[in-house]
UniProtKB/TrEMBL annotation:
This is Lipid A biosynthesis acyltransferase. The chain crosses the membrane at residues 31-50. One of its GO terms (molecular function) is acyltransferase activity. It comes from Stenotrophobium rhamnosiphilum. One of its GO terms (biological process) is glycolipid biosynthetic process.
Length: 300
């Protein structure tokens, strides 16, 4: 049986990440990016399960058998995004070229006074969205994150950006405590971002068609949005090389409705729409896919 994503051992460590960050801040981002090549080479040689997952995804997204160069580009894109993420967390004022593709209805929902739920994915970098929000003082972004399952990243944000760490809503707290924290954030007209592309073993899942196979997505975000009665927006921040990011937004609905008589079908429809949107942008920017584990189920 394939190892679940939340059970995989983290292959990086905070010491190495902080060393690269120190080089980036002392000598500049271009110098630090040169160090990414030997790091990518190391993962190409030793990352058996990650390379297998990369091959499985790229075969679907590229509609051909991936070559060695495709895997190298895949891992290099991931390393580049991680470097930028650390620089943003450390408060570095690097100049990022962000192309914001935000339809009018999305801008209206974000500033409706009700708050909204922003569904993200491990496709590109959600961190650049927060960087943009910092520059737009009228837009607040709070991140819903399971701090227990993201141990290394949790440690990094606590060390690099304590203010951001305090603003994270810890998803490991369950039940009324979590709902209360979310309601308080939404009452402040915050945009609450949460990942919606990975399901835990103990979590309710919805089966969807994704890039020619069957995958499992969490039902929780849609149930949560229905309970909170807020708009739901999809967002994908795609890395395009250099310092360029392409941020795509799409409004799913001003209100998520899960009627009791057709609850399962409604959940299926919402999750499938998210999967279709994710597949669209994954094909546009295939090297931005950062789910390095067995993503597809073997049977429907």
């Amino acid at each position: 049986m394939a190892e679940a994503w939340d059970q995989q051992q983290e292959r990086s460590n905070t010491v190495m990440l902080r060393l690269i960050l120190w080089i980036a801040r002392s000598l500049g981002r271009p110098v630090a990016r040169l160090l990414l090549f030997p790091i990518v080479g190391y993962f190409l040689l030793t990352g058996g399960s990650a390379k297998k997952a990369s091959r499985d995804f790229l075969r679907r997204a590229l509609n051909r058998e991936p070559r060695w160069l495709d895997h190298a580009k895949h891992f290099h894109t991931f390393a580049s995004v991680m470097l930028d993420r650390m620089l943003i967390l450390s408060g570095n004022k690097m100049k990022l070229d962000m192309q914001m593709n935000q339809p009018p209805e999305v801008a209206t929902a974000m500033r409706s006074g009700r708050g909204c739920l922003l569904l993200l994915a491990h496709l590109g970098s959600f961190e650049v969205l927060r960087a943009r929000a910092v520059s737009e003082t009228d837009l607040r972004i709070r991140i819903l994150m399971d701090m227990a399952s993201n141990r290394m990243f949790s440690t990094l944000i606590q060390q690099l950006d304590p203010v951001f760490a305090k603003s994270v809503i810890d998803a490991s707290q369950r039940g009324p405590t979590l709902v209360l924290a979310l309601k308080e954030a939404l009452a402040e007209d915050a945009v609450v971002g949460t990942m919606a592309d990975r399901v835990r073993d103990d979590e309710r899942a919805v089966s969807v068609e994704f890039l020619g196979g069957t995958a499992q997505l969490p039902a929780g975000p849609w149930i949560l949005a229905s309970a909170l009665n807020v708009p739901v927006i999809l967002a994908f921040s795609l890395y395009r090389g250099g310092n360029h990011y392409d941020v795509q937004f799409e409004l799913v609905s001003e209100k998520i409705e899960l009627p009791r008589s057709s609850r399962e079908q409604a959940l299926q429809n919402y999750a499938q729409r998210y999967a279709d949107c994710m597949a669209h942008y994954a094909k546009q920017a295939p090297y931005n896919w950062f789910n390095f584990y067995d993503y597809w189920t073997k049977t429907p």
